[in-house]
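User: C-alpha cells in, sequence out, please.
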C-alpha cells in the first residue's frame, strides 16, 4: 500500500500557479494518492517553511519567484546544475534510515525544462540570443542556452548589469555573454527570452524601456516565461510582427516533469506527460 504524501510549491505571489493542477493530473495518471498544494511563502519565512516541510515528511517542494536564489543556502546538498546556476527550484528530502535525519537536496529543473520547451518551437540553433531579467529563472535560461549552443553569443539585460550574478560560474559566460542595461538595449538575433515579472499577476506592468522587436531576425523566436499570456503584451506584439512565440506554460510543464522524475525516481511515461499538459491548458 502506498501512503499519501504531500508535495507543494512555495512562492510570493502563488495564487496564479498552475503547478498544483498539473501535478495532481500526474498523480491521477500514475494512480498515486499524493497531494500537491500551493503555499504562500515570503523570502523571510522560507527557512522555517523548508525545514518544516522536511520535518513533516513532504515528498518534495518546488520554488518559484522570489525564492529560488534564497533557497541555495538552505540546502545540505546541491546538484551540479543548481550549484552552477546559483538557484534552486526543486527540493528533495532524503531521509537517512539509520539516523532518521532528513537532508535537503536542491536541484534546478528550470534549465532542462526551458530547453525541452524550446524544442517544441521550429527553428535552428540561434547564433545570438537576448535574455531580459537577472533573477533566478534567468540564471537557468542563460545556463541552458550557453550549454546547449556552444557558438551562441548572448546579451543579458538587467537594471544593474554590473551585478548580474554567476557569470563567472557558468562555463564560457565571460567570453560569450554581454551584460547590458535596459537603456543600452539594441535588440537583435534569433531568440528573445523574457524572464522578468512584467505581465505576471501582481507583477510590474511594463518594461523599463519600450521593447523594439524590429531588430530581430525574420521568424525569430520570442519566449515569455510568464503565464498566462498577458493580453496586448510582448507575445501579442511579436506574433503581430510575424515572429514565433511561446508563453511560460511549456517550460512550466517540462520543469514539472523533471521535478516529478526526481521525487518519484522514475521516468514519466508519455501518457502522464500528456495528462499534465492537458491539465495545464484546460485550467
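Assistant: Sequence out:
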Amino acid at each position: 500500500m502506498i501512503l499519501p504524501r504531500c508535495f507543494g510549491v512555495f512562492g510570493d505571489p502563488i495564487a496564479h500557479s498552475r503547478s498544483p493542477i498539473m501535478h495532481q493530473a500526474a498523480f491521477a495518471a500514475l494512480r498515486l494518492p499524493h497531494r500537491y498544494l500551493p503555499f504562500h511563502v515570503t523570502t523571510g519565512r522560507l527557512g522555517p517553511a523548508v525545514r518544516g516541510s522536511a520535518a513533516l515528511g513532504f515528498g518534495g517542494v518546488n520554488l518559484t519567484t522570489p525564492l529560488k536564489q534564497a533557497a541555495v543556502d538552505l540546502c545540505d546538498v546541491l546538484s551540479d546544475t543548481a550549484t552552477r546556476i546559483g538557484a534552486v527550484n526543486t527540493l528533495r528530502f532524503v531521509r537517512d534510515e539509520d539516523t532518521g535525519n532528513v537532508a535537503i537536496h536542491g536541484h534546478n529543473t528550470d534549465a532542462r525544462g526551458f530547453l525541452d520547451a524550446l524544442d517544441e518551437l521550429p527553428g535552428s540553433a540561434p547564433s545570438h540570443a537576448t535574455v531580459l531579467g537577472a533573477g533566478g529563472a534567468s540564471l537557468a535560461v542563460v545556463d541552458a542556452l550557453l550549454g546547449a549552443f556552444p557558438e551562441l553569443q548572448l546579451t543579458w539585460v538587467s537594471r544593474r548589469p554590473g551585478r548580474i550574478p554567476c557569470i563567472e560560474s557558468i562555463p564560457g559566460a565571460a567570453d560569450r555573454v554581454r551584460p547590458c542595461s535596459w537603456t543600452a538595449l539594441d535588440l537583435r538575433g534569433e531568440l528573445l527570452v523574457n524572464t522578468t515579472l512584467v505581465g505576471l499577476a501582481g507583477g510590474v506592468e511594463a518594461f523599463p524601456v519600450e521593447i523594439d522587436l524590429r531588430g530581430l531576425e525574420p521568424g525569430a523566436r520570442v519566449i515569455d516565461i510568464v503565464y498566462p499570456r498577458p493580453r496586448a503584451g510582448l507575445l501579442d506584439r511579436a506574433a503581430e510582427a510575424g515572429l514565433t512565440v511561446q508563453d511560460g506554460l511549456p517550460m512550466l510543464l517540462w520543469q514539472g516533469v523533471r521535478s516529478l522524475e526526481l521525487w518519484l525516481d522514475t521516468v514519466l511515461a508519455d501518457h502522464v506527460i500528456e495528462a499534465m499538459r492537458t491539465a495545464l491548458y484546460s485550467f
